[in-house]
Design brief:
Elements lengths: L1 E3 L4 E2 H11 L4 H7 L10 H34 L1
Antiparallel strand pairs: 1-2
The chain binds FE2/S2 (inorganic) cluster.
Length: 77
């Protein structure tokens, strides 16, 4: 689904930027895309999508951290 119709930016693109680049703030997204720079109607929806993407990003990072901690602990045993 297109979030920003003016610039053809989809929800998939926003989620990808959030998950892969850690961009969870609209200001960060605006540095790499023109989102919201024309009519601005997309900004509210984009913020909502980014807020929903945060927990998944945090879960992914916490899973990686947990795996590292477990492997480090195993090295000391
Ligand atoms: S819909 Fe994004 S700037 Fe118009």
């Amino acid at each position: 689904m297109y979030v920003c119709v003016c610039h053809g930016i989809s929800d998939k693109t926003l989620r990808k930027l959030a998950h892969e680049q850690g961009m969870t703030d609209i200001k960060e997204i605006r540095k790499v895309t023109p989102l919201g720079s024309q009519c601005g109607k997309c900004v509210r929806t984009a913020k909502k999508i980014l807020q929903e993407a945060v927990p998944r990003t945090m879960l992914k990072h916490s899973a990686n951290l947990r795996a590292k901690l477990i492997s480090n602990k195993a090295a000391y045993l």
